[in-house]
Design brief:
mainly alpha; two-stranded antiparallel sheet; single chain; Helicase, Ruva Protein, domain 3; 2 strands
Amino acid sequence: MCEVITDDEMATAITRIGPDPIHKGADPVRAWDRVHRSAAPIGALLMDQKIFAGVGNIYRAEVLFRHQISPFTHGRVISNKQFDAIWSDLVSLMTLGVKNGRIDTVRAVHLPEVMGREPRVDRHGGEVYVYRREGMKCFVCGAKIKMADMQGRKLYWCAKCQVG
């Protein structure tokens, strides 16, 4: 069912969600204010649409891997520098994902043609570090990628690389 809403209703709805990294006017300070005061794990906070709008399971797993941050790290332990790096990376990765119509998160040094490995074959497409790679070797350290449940969603990470 689709419902037409007024501009005022739209404005009210938007106040209930966090900043969207691909929205030009997004204010990351709104998300930071919630993250740095929270005892919840950053892996859960990234999926909370009241804190970050639009960050889904793939970007959550990948951005934390790219910054070597454990998804179990409490929000209040995340430094401002780490948060800024996460936000900046989300802006870049999500913008690129929209432009290309697929999610690619691996850096050039880890592309299949550089590493001499087969490209990823998955219905989601795109080259990723940890998402849906449970039990496979990490491209960086060789450890096996882990998978667990976090708030009803599958969570992927490398326990050796993501210690911070």
